[in-house]
Design goal:
Layout lengths: L11 H13 L24 H7 L2 H20 L3 H11 L10 H16 L5 H10 L19 H12 L18 H4 L4 E2 L7 E2 L2 H10 L13
Antiparallel strand pairs: 1-2
Helix pairs in contact: 1-5, 4-5
């Protein structure tokens, strides 16, 4: 399927990394009640219709917030598992000549998963994530070499998550386009009146994206999608 959205965890690459993260880094999650990908797989466009319908229910929202996310946070914070996963991922990062930077992007996705859980991240690891961001491809659309790394909204989401990271506070990556969630700004977002998908923290944020013309290239009325 490839990519069906510009935010984090709206492409096969992100979800595949989330699904196999623990195993790829030498930790078996076979007997975990919930995997790390359970925190983000609600964005999977290929999920069965019954699963998509369940993700929209209030009961699932409660289960995600009160059961799944706290379970993963406890797993990551126990015996410094999150720190050990981060160290393992950093150790596997390849050099800057790798055009795909896949191993470094995996560290980014690991950081996003840890922040999604609200688990602990050491300051030095937060700084490492910031240092990685300029090294990761960020483009508006698929390039000749493939479709890897960030789209601009996903990059903005990740940067906002770093800026507002608080241990113990789970981070949502479902909204908005600018990266700052409602908890960051203290009010509901503005929404693009044309596509009804893109969201903005205020009029200045929306104007900045209009000026950059990035959203105009992908903005489409619902009936045309």
């Amino acid at each position: 399927m490839g990519r069906w959205g510009s935010r984090l965890f709206k492409c096969d690459e992100d979800l595949d990394m989330a699904f196999s993260m623990a195993t790829e880094l030498g930790v078996s999650d076979r007997y975990w009640k919930h995997s790390m990908s359970a925190m983000v797989h609600q964005s999977d466009i290929l999920a069965p219709p019954e699963a998509k319908a369940r993700y929209q229910t209030p009961e699932y929202a409660v289960e995600l917030a009160d059961v799944i996310i706290p379970y993963i946070r406890d797993k990551l914070d126990t015996d410094d598992l999150g720190d050990r996963l981060f160290a393992a991922s950093k150790a596997q990062e390849t050099d800057e000549d790798d055009p795909r930077q896949e191993t470094k992007y995996r560290t980014i996705i690991l950081g996003a998963l840890i922040m999604r859980a609200g688990a602990k991240i050491k300051n030095e690891d937060l700084e490492h994530l910031r240092a990685l961001m300029p090294q990761i491809n960020c483009s508006l659309r698929r390039s000749m070499s493939g479709d890897h790394g960030f789209r601009p909204p996903g990059r903005a989401q990740f940067l906002a998550a770093l800026d507002h990271y608080v241990p113990g506070v789970p981070r949502s990556f479902l909204e908005p386009s600018c990266g700052r969630i409602e908890a960051d700004i203290g009010h509901r977002h503005l929404i693009c009146m044309r596509c009804r998908v893109a969201t903005y923290c205020d009029e200045e944020c929306q104007h900045a994206e209009v000026e950059s013309r990035e959203h105009q290239k992908v903005c489409m009325c619902p009936e045309r999608r």
